[in-house]
């Protein structure tokens, strides 16, 4: 497995692969990998001749009060995990390699970021769209794989790729969960034992919502109210949002008469966690 840190070197490598008619698959990450990331790597491995994983903690998606400096990092651990999965290249640039001192070009979407996480994290999706565009221009993949746990992010990337006519297939990988149902996240390491017990309420709340829909409760506001009460009953929880919305536009819906996205963002202690589920009426 090769480590590349320079943009030009990665571009030359990608150009060479394409000239040799090799298919490139790409999994962008911020490192501190876990089984959720590895599940995406395994999907990508089956679809390509050259598999690239990026490890880059992107500063442009963090607000000044957020955890950019504290975000967990362990490159050697990430290297060992990706090597076992048959990754061909780790692209791991320094911040200055992607963002020069005079950097001033950003990619913004108008509608999808105006919901869910975009309300409390107003610069987040601009940072995500910008860095992913840059990474796509550097790695030049035919296919890229993102996790459905970050559902809004997946929609942002798909919309951006469609709107800008990028010739890249975007694939969504299923959410991978811990043994107790908590959605895998690099930030789970922040949780204390007591906080983790409260964090499990997110997945349990989603399952309760699905059972409510199966029992013919279709009033979205009623399910949202019950969900907030359930999560708030657990120690150290502070709800950012609970929403039931259209899976494509993220617009709130009032009546659940078709598949609907239920999405949650909750602070447990100081750790912000997200989760989601498609609620099915059948």
Keywords:
single chain, 282 residues, alpha/beta, Rossmann fold, Pantoate--beta-alanine Ligase, Chain: A,domain 2, six-stranded parallel beta sheet, three-stranded antiparallel beta sheet, 10 helices, globular
Could you give the topology of this structure?
Elements: E1 2-4, H1 7-19, E2 24-29, H2 35-45, E3 50-55, H3 75-84, E4 89-91, H4 95-98, H5 117-120, H6 124-139, E5 143-147, H7 151-163, E6 169-173, H8 193-199, H9 201-214, H10 220-232, E7 237-245, E8 260-268, E9 271-279
Parallel strand pairs: 1-4, 2-3, 2-5, 3-4, 5-6
Antiparallel strand pairs: 7-8, 8-9
Beta content comes to: 15-25%
Coarse shape: globular
CATH class categorisation of the largest domain: Alpha Beta
Q: Report the CATH superfamily of the largest domain.
A: HUPs
**Extended strand count:** 9
Poorly predicted spans: none
- As laid out across the biggest beta sheet, the strand order is 1-4-3-2-5-6
Number of domains: 2
CATH architecture label name of the largest domain: 3-Layer(aba) Sandwich
Using only CA atoms, what is the Rg?
A: 19 Å
Quickly count the helices.
10
Helix content: 25-40%
Please outline the major beta sheet. 6 strands, parallel
H-E order: EHEHEHEHHHEHEHHHEEE
């Amino acid at each position: 497995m090769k480590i590349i840190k320079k943009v030009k070197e990665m571009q030359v490598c990608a150009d060479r692969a394409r000239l040799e008619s090799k298919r490139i698959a790409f999994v962008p990450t911020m490192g501190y990998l876990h089984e959720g990331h590895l599940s995406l790597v395994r999907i990508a491995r089956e679809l390509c001749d050259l598999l690239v994983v990026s490890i880059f903690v992107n500063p442009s998606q963090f607000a000044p009060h957020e955890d950019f400096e504290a975000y967990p990092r362990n490159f050697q651990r990430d290297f060992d995990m990706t090597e076992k999965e048959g990754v061909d290249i780790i692209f791991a640039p320094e911040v200055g390699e992607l963002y020069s001192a005079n950097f001033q070009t950003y990619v913004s979407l108008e509608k999808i970021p105006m919901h869910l996480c975009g309300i409390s994290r107003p610069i987040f999706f601009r940072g995500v769209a910008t860095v992913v565009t840059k990474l796509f221009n550097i790695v030049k993949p035919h296919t890229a794989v993102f996790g459905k746990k970050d559902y809004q992010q997946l929609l942002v990337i798909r919309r951006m790729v469609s709107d800008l006519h990028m010739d890249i297939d975007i694939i969504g990988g299923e959410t991978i969960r811990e043994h107790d149902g908590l959605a895998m996240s690099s930030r789970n390491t922040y949780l204390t034992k007591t906080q983790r017990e409260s964090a499990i309420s997110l997945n349990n709340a989603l399952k309760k919502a699905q059972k409510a829909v199966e029992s013919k409760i279709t009033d979205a506001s009623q399910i949202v109210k019950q969900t907030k009460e359930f999560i708030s009953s657990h120690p150290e929880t502070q709800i950012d949002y609970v929403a039931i919305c259209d899976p494509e536009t993220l617009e709130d819906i009032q009546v659940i008469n078709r598949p609907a996205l239920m999405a949650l963002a909750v602070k447990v202690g100081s750790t912000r966690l997200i989760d989601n589920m498609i609620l099915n009426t059948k």
